[in-house]
Input
Amino acid sequence: MNPPISSQAKLPGRPFVAYSNGQLMVEQVVLRDLAAQHGTPLFVYSKAAILAALTAYQRGLAGRKSLICYAMKANSSLAILKLLADAGCGFDIVSSGELERALTVGAEPAKIVFSGVGKTRHEMRQALEAGVGCFNIESLAELEVLDAVARECGKVAPVSIRVNPNVDAKTHPYISTGLKGNKFGIAHEDALAAYQRAATLPGLHVVGIDCHIGSQITEEAPYLEAMDRVLDLVTSIEAAGIAIHHIDFGGGLGIDYNGETPPAADALWARLLERLDARGFGDRKLMIEPGRSLVGNAGVCITEVQYLKPGEQKNFCIVDAAMNDLPRPALYEAFHQIVALQPRDDAPVTYDVVGPVCESGDWLGRDRNLAVQPGDLLAVLSTGAYSMSMSSNYNTRPRPAEVLVDGANSRLIRARESVQDLWRLELP
Ligand code: LLP
Output
């Protein structure tokens, strides 16, 4: 159920999305005006919200040697990347496509970490040529291949090993990555041997250690537990004579989708730094790879109600956004609040909000109380992360446009796709 929303209210957890005079705004821009100008579905992002989220991490790490690498898989639109690069961020990438995006916006290669379990030789070569700061290695096999590729290129690859701390992040199983049964990382008990092997390979230079235990984590305990496990390893790796220059704690901090109360980034880091200092590791270079917590609550997706379809068991509110634009509900049964741009005073009706795609899984919200009529505009909230970046063209649906709001100004940062764009590479 959506909580009742007064037409003057701020939306909790989203300080830059609020109603004013009965109209939903992002910063000082009326969303209805953007929909009229750019059509729907439309993604709208708040620059101030992204920078405020980044500032919380920067505050938390102030005075420390640190690097924030934005996990661009969350939202890799160039304007967002540029905003974060200009604000000093590095990037966590997982493909050569993401590498090219980062380089295109002027990212410093040394501030890029390359994650992922399946890097190809071609991708390794490209990243070596670019001079990325670190390869986060996920298996012994990858270690050997990277060594060979680096030697072929006449380079030495800076590496970190992603250790799997076997910690339960207490999140959705599809986005939990730090448990033994996951495909990610090298098991905690095998990590020392992997470092010892890495240290013997001439194409590699060990620079750090990393972990990432999952996504949409709303408690601090799993982070503290993972940190302890990683620090135990640093102690034994260094006892074996291998220096660890940086410690990368990954991303994963959750956001408020529906009343969740994740720790604020600065509060979380205050706790983590206490632990690091107590264990004598406070002077290391600290790295993090946040994605969702930087951009998730900075974005909304505007969609227009097409039809209302009352039914015996369910009422459907059919909108013009769908699972191809907003795949998280279909994939993870994820909850996104859905609110009217201009709330009506009529009595609300309970609807499943669904898209036009030919799948029963094409729903955006279930059992939502809404007072709506065809033609009304709705905002699907918290869609700055893992929405546009996971969108597809299923049902030959061109992807939405994207707009970035900055105070009272707004700017198109990605034009709506045309159908011709979709078949441009096809050969009939
Ligand atoms: N670092 C690594 C190695 C990762 O695998 C991820 C996310 C991150 C950092 C960033 O995590 P974040 O701070 O965004 O939680 N599509 C899913 C989330 C998948 C996360 C994958 N890895 C969703 O929509 O919930």
The first strand starts at residue 10 and ends at 11.
